[in-house]
Design brief:
Elements lengths: L2 H9 L8 E2 L6 H9 L8 H4 L5 E5 L9 E5 L3 E5 L5 E5 L7 E4 L5 H7 L14 H11 L2 E5 L3 H9 L1 H10 L1 H25 L4 E5 L3 E2 L2 E2 L3 H21 L3 E6 L7 H7 L3 E4 L8 H8 L4 E3 L4 H4 L3 H15 L5 E3 L11 H14 L4
Parallel strand pairs: 1-14, 2-7, 7-8, 8-11, 11-12, 12-13, 13-14
Antiparallel strand pairs: 3-4, 4-5, 5-6, 9-10
Helix pairs in contact: 6-7, 6-8, 7-8, 8-9, 13-14
């Protein structure tokens, strides 16, 4: 069974030959460590480890404003992106960029710029058709990634101002969300006219370590109707839907189920998520994707294997589980630990 077949069956609630074993983010520093521990210098780590390859293609959902590097400081630089947001980005190590300033600060600012979210074919990567052909030849799983609407609001306004807007100007935020959802739908139509990807994958960290950034009521009033529009359109076109959200998602998963998503990822263990509990509560309604603690993978081989045994054994039962770290793979994880975890997950997660 190819990766594509395996993942499509899993997200549809059917049993594949075994669980899919995936990883979408291995830090550059991790790869350097692994090369010193036996990973061939020219090897793709996913292929070398025998994992299931996922390919993500990012759509341009920005306001398409001019971008520029404002200041180059060697180890880091400061730039302005296509939404007018100013960032500090590190060159010397992997780290989340720092939000410094925004262009949109008032409702009037939004109304002045919102028409720039017009769809156009060049928002889709130029190599999209080539990736589709490679997918069909090689059997990997291909997901397209527009910007999740509420996450775009928070990134474009900044967290503090964005959350204030939700409280003070809910109609404005709803309009921002609606415009981004419209853009997602238009780009999905354009993409499927070229050829059908396997999934839409939204990346959106709407939770933090203690729970949601805003209430379920706000989610249902402002965001849910538009997420439903997107998932329904995807399902009508034969696309599956995946939602990425860091932080504690115990209160969030039922909302994502209600919105119509087929999977939630990565289920951060360090934030208190436990796939075994979520399997009991939601395992027949959504595919659970991840929750393998990188802290455990960074310990002894025995600790890494115990983490995989305990979680994969429970989560894989009956299907609808995909192996993945609980966030991404940092350089604290030894190659041998990760290799053993992958092999063990495939053995435990076999349905044949």
């Amino acid at each position: 069974m190819t990766t594509r077949e395996r993942l499509r069956r899993t997200l549809s609630g059917e049993l594949p030959d075994r669980i899919a074993v995936c990883e979408i983010c291995i830090w550059p520093e991790t790869l350097e460590r692994w090369k010193s521990e036996g990973l061939p210098a020219d090897a793709d780590p996913i292929t070398w480890l025998g994992m299931d390859p996922l390919v993500l293609l990012w759509f341009d959902c920005s306001l398409r404003l001019p971008t520029e590097v404002i200041e180059d400081c060697g180890d880091y630089y400061i730039d302005r992106d296509g939404d007018g947001v100013v960032w500090k980005r590190w060159r010397s190590h992997t780290a989340t960029p720092t939000h410094l300033d925004t262009l949109i600060k008032t409702p009037d600012d939004w109304y002045a710029y919102r028409d720039r979210l017009a769809p156009s074919p060049d928002r889709i990567p130029a190599d999209y058709a080539d990736r589709l052909r490679a997918r069909d030849e090689q059997g990997f799983y291909l997901a397209v990634t527009p910007v999740e609407p509420m996450w775009w609001v928070l990134m474009t306004l900044g967290f503090e101002l964005g959350l204030s807007f939700i409280a003070d100007y809910p109609d404005v935020v709803e309009d921002m969300v609606a415009r981004q959802a419209d853009l997602s739908l238009a780009l999905i139509d354009m993409a499927t006219n070229i050829g059908k990807p396997d999934a839409l994958w939204y990346f959106s960290d709407l939770c933090y370590r203690n729970g949601m950034l805003f209430s379920p009521r706000i989610f249902r009033e402002i965001l849910l109707p538009h997420l439903k529009r997107v998932t329904q359109a995807c399902h009508d076109r034969g696309l599956q839907t995946i939602f990425h959200c860091d932080g504690y998602v115990g209160e969030f998963i039922p909302l994502i189920v209600e919105a119509g998503f087929d999977a939630i990822q990565p289920l951060e263990a360090r934030a208190g998520n436990d796939v075994r509990e979520y399997k009991r509560l939601y395992g027949d309604r959504i595919t659970l994707f991840g929750n393998i603690s990188v802290e455990k993978l960074s310990g002894s081989v025995e600790e890494a294997e115990a983490e995989v045994t305990a979680k994969v054994g429970a989560a894989a039962a009956g299907g609808r589980y995909i192996f993945h770290s609980d966030h991404s793979v940092p350089p604290t994880v030894p190659l041998e630990n990760f290799r053993r975890a992958v092999e063990l997950a495939k053995r435990i997660g076999s349905y044949e």
